[in-house]
Write a structure and sequence with these properties.
By secondary structure, the protein is an alpha/beta fold. It contains eleven helices and 16 strands. The N and C termini lie far apart (80 Å). The protein binds ligand RRO.
Length: 394
């Protein structure tokens, strides 16, 4: 029911992990392989291993005065073990045992680094690496602007990557590119105009975190994380609606260019089956979990997948293709926010409202018991008052 194909790679389940949280080591990737996730995606690799930015460098489980909004912010700075770690024989043979597609994320510090990492992947056995997610949108590297925002650079990178792939004589893993969130209609258009020139790009992942957000510790009057003057990429619940719009707008652009052969994977604020359902309605073929995987561990894949399945069953859908990309325009009478979608994690909200009831009901009961005797005296008084008036009137 949840099976899908991303750029031609078959997934048993359309819910899988985002690159980033809990993806740095082979042990962590195998853990993902042992969950319900539809694929295994590595942390973005650089050519050489690096430690990333100074600590502390992330915030999650953000408390908005009682309710977790499932948001996050990070300035990890690409901590990873270097490309060779993610594609060596031992790693590949262990990951293969999980029987899921394996996708390696790349985020070279230079174009040459990206090309070198691609060459190393192309030298590996293809049946063990199914896809490459070329990350063109990391917001946290000092002095490195986001490639996806610089359209000339985006064009140049895709041109060079394309030349390299086309020069390889054997079949290469499926290429996807990860984009940054766009906020202006002209940018969706421009990005797609460039991407569709390169037939090597088989899918788009949208969206990376919203770069350069800030959290402040008002008590200490300081930035809440250490790197880059406290700036980091905003993710999770905060960006769900930006992710929905990015999937929707890019999908629309692809359709209007007749390029539905390029798939879209949605990422950003998915914490429930409903979130995944909404992304698919907007055109996504799969949904990645980042912040949710970070805060909830590997069980999140099974939970989100079964919630999505339940929604599909309730609506009579047998496959995600029954509703994918079929979002209708606004209709009169539609609620601004559907009751279902007011929460990213219905379980958390349900639990909270139930426990509130358990507190409020006994309080009402105690107050009622205290004021009951006074109410009866009052009734007697009222009765006398009206009886007197009736007698007087007569
Ligand atoms: O490692 C990071 O700081 C990081 C990366 Br590579 C990315 O793509 N997105 C993000 O929010 N953080």
């Amino acid at each position: 029911m949840l099976a899908t194909k991303v750029g031609g790679i078959s997934f048993d389940c359309c819910v899988y992990n985002a690159s980033g949280p809990k993806t740095n080591s082979i042990e962590a990737l195998i853990k993902i392989g042992n969950t319900a996730a539809g694929a295994i995606l590595s942390k973005s690799a650089t050519l050489n291993a690096q430690d990333g930015n100074e600590l502390p460098r992330f915030i999650n489980k953000i408390d908005l005065g009682g309710n977790y909004c499932n948001g996050s912010m990070n300035s990890e700075g690409l901590p990873n073990q270097g490309i060779d770690y993610y594609i060596n024989d031992e790693a590949l043979s262990q990951i293969k045992k999980c029987n899921k597609p394996y996708i390696v994320s790349l985020s070279g510090l230079t174009l040459n680094d990206n090309l070198e990492m691609l060459k190393r992947i192309f030298n590996r056995p293809l049946d063990n690496i199914n896809g490459i997610e070329l990350n063109l949108a990391c917001p946290n590297i000092v002095n490195k602007p986001v490639i996806a925002y610089d359209f000339d650079q985006l064009d140049e990178v895709l041109n060079e990557v394309s030349k390299l792939i086309n020069s390889v004589k054997k079949k290469t893993p499926i290429l996807g590119i990860k984009l940054a969130p766009y906020f202006d209609p002209s940018h969706f258009k421009k990005a797609i105009e460039i991407i569709i020139k390169y037939s090597v790009v088989k899918y788009i992942v949208t969206t990376n975190t919203i770069g350069n957000a800030m959290f402040i510790d008002a008590e200490l009057e300081c930035a809440a994380i250490a790197p880059r003057n406290g700036l980091g990429g905003l993710g999770g619940g905060y960006i769900k609606h930006t992710a929905l719009a990015n999937v929707y707008m890019l999908y629309k652009e692809l359709v209007s260019n007749g390029r539905t052969d390029i798939d879209i994977v949605g990422v950003g604020g998915v914490h429930s089956g409903l979130d995944a359902f909404e992304l698919i309605l907007c055109g996504a073929k799969a949904a990645q979990l980042g912040t949710c995987h970070w805060t909830e561990n590997g069980d999140c894949f099974k939970r989100v997948a079964s919630e999505l399945k339940q929604i599909m069953q309730n609506k009579g859908y047998n496959s995600i293709e029954d509703f994918r990309g079929k979002l209708k325009p606004y209709m009169k009478g539609s609620k601004q926010i559907s009751k279902m979608s007011t929460t990213s994690n219905p379980k958390i909200q349900d639990g909270k409202s139930k426990s509130l009831l358990f507190i409020i009901l006994p309080i009402i009961l105690i107050i009622a018991l205290i004021i009951c005797p006074y109410i009866s005296i009052d009734f007697a008084g009222l009765q006398n008052h009206y009886l007197l008036r009736i007698v007087k009137n007569n």
